[in-house]
Amino acid sequence: MASFTVPGTANPQRVVDDSGARRFLFTMTAGSGSFAEGRLSLAGVPLVVYFTDRPYRQAGHMSLQDFMSLWQGDAEDLGNDPPNAELAIYDAGSDAQSVLIIDEPEMSEGSISFRVKLLDETIPATFGQATLFIDAFPCAVNGC
């Protein structure tokens, strides 16, 4: 039987984080949206979907108000390290994506807006159906 050693594997880096902390990610689908003066607005957002990856595989829904409460419970950390997000805009059978950092959410009935910093691509001034995918943030990992 052949045997070999892979160079540099004496202290391999962990590829999967199995530290035990659940990492909740979020999505919100909007009927329409707009982008102006550094703010992304999403209208017609009925619920926020949250989910985890392996090994927990938990998923569910929450209201925009519950999402805002979660965010506000972590306002200090989020001010220092706001989450990354991706906006996928549906356009005649295709998606256009923009990667961004979101901060300072504001909510009104069925709508939410964020101050954003674009990391790549652009966002049109107005658009139709879209989904915002949001990375985990500290409260979403540890609870508040």
What report would you give on this structure?
It is a single chain. Helices cover 14% and strands 44% of the residues. The chain has 144 residues and is mainly beta. The chain has one domain (25-142): Beta Barrel (Elongation Factor Tu (Ef-tu), domain 3), CATH 2.40.30. Strands 5-4-1-10-6-7-8-3-2-9 form a 10-stranded antiparallel β-sheet. The longest helix has 9 residues, at 64-72. It is globular, with a radius of gyration of 18 Å. The termini are far apart.
Round the mean pLDDT to the nearest integer and report it.
Answer: 82
Using the 3D structure, state the CATH architecture: Beta Barrel
Cα gyration radius (Å): 18 Å
- CATH fold call: Elongation Factor Tu (Ef-tu), domain 3
Shape: globular
Count every beta strand, where a strand is a DSSP E run of 2 or more residues: 10
